[in-house]
User: Fold this.
Amino acid sequence: MSLEKFIEDFEDAVEDVEPGSLNAGTVFKGLRSWDSLAILTVTDVVEMEYGVLLNKKSFEGVSTVEELYQLVVHKR
Amino acid sequence: MAKSTFNRIQIGGVVTCVPPLEKCIDDEVELFGGNLKQIARLKKTIGLDRRRVVEAGTTAADLCYAAAQRLMVARALGPEEIDAVICVTQTPDYSQPCNAAVLHGRLGLPKTCAALDVNLGCSGYVYGLWLAHMMVSAGGCERVLLLAGDTISQVVHPKDRSVAPLFGDGGSATVVERSECESSAWFSLETDGKGFDKLIVPAGGARCQSSAQTRAAVMDEAGNVRSPENLFMDGAEVFNFSIVEEPKAVRDLAKYAGLELDAVDYFVFHQANRYILSNIAKRLKLDPAKVPMRTVERYGNQSSASIPTALCSELQAVLTEGDSHRVLLSGFGVGLSWASVILNLGALPVCEMIEYATCE
Assistant:
């Protein structure tokens, strides 16, 4: 898995996020559309694409897209 | 493993009753703090829209009673032809006696008829069908009346965005009876009690009795309001449970039945919400046309009544006309509990939705 692909998947999963608008350092929790629904849609895409099941706690310890990526890499 | 197979037992009719009062998420702008965009996203992504809710004084037992009456008239069944009644509900009229006994009396069923409640929610309809099949299979019961219904709208706090716009009310009646036809049914039933607190009404039972404190509503960190006597749902955990366990349960059951998933004509899941259902369908690579998932947007998540509502509203034409179909029914939720069945369903003399009339 690559960080670039992960960012694309993340952009795809979250509402109102244009493709190419995020980068590794983006603090996703600061996105206007980041809420409990976004947690579901990101959990869904991560499980489908990477076979890793995140839970609410997983999101508590990370704030940038790259940190979330590293967490998924670690859990794989 | 709780798996079982039955033959020559069939479903002989289903009726679901919903209250006439319709609520719509579009009318609840205040609940969402004026955030119209969030409402639009919930409609688009989760499939929330309209739901039916009871007015004060109407209970799940009333809805089930109306459904049972309609079913018995449509099937021309007399009370003496019912050997057992099972009531699946988590919103009974009384903590005791059970709804099945109360409804047994209201329906004028004979003293020779067994009656019991099952305290399950979203998985309860399939559990009820399993019990009914076992009762017929074991002998002594030719025909079992399965009543499944809930009024979860009365248990949620109206200011809890995580549950209030989701749940609707309904009551159903299904007849399960011995048949001369070859008609196999394969069941699987599972539980994860470690997840008991993911969907829970924490207070008001014996563990934490009702008091002024348990009736006091408080606001959580997300801004949702509820008391310990209201339903709490950990949505993210329930979602994870659903997308992991349901596809697995469906695959396992098909394997147990010796069937490919392609051999199943319809997959009728508990109508939790469209997002969960489309996810399960995607993971199982099912043809979306075989998976009814529009019940929530019309009626809300109806707990134990959601599968019968999906049958009566989305598959009514299919199930009343022509041949029998191979159908998979699968419920999952509070417990955590989940149960699935593959059975033959079709050519039903009655499969319909009715509206509750208060004068009943």
About this structure: Chain B has a mean pLDDT of 96.
